[in-house]
Amino acid sequence: MGVSAKTIEAWESGKNIPQGPAQRMLFILKNNSKALNILGIKN
Fold first, then answer.
1. Against a cut of 0.90, is the pTM above it?
2. Which of 1, 4, 19, 41 sits CB 3.0–4.6 Å from 36 for a disulfide?
3. CA distances (Å), 40 to each of 2, 13, 29, 36, in order?
4. Which domain of life is it from (predicted)?
5. How far apart are CA 29 and CA 9, in angstroms?
C-alpha cells in the first residue's frame, strides 16, 4: 500500500486511524477474501 511500518504500527496500536484510500482498501480486504487472493496475499 506504500505506507511505512511506523504508520501500520500506529494503526494497529489505535494511535492513528487509516484515512482516505488506505481506509477504503483495508475495508475491502477485511470484507472480501477474494481481494486478498487477487493481490497475492495469503490469509
1. no
2. 41
3. 16, 26, 12, 6
4. Bacteria
5. 18
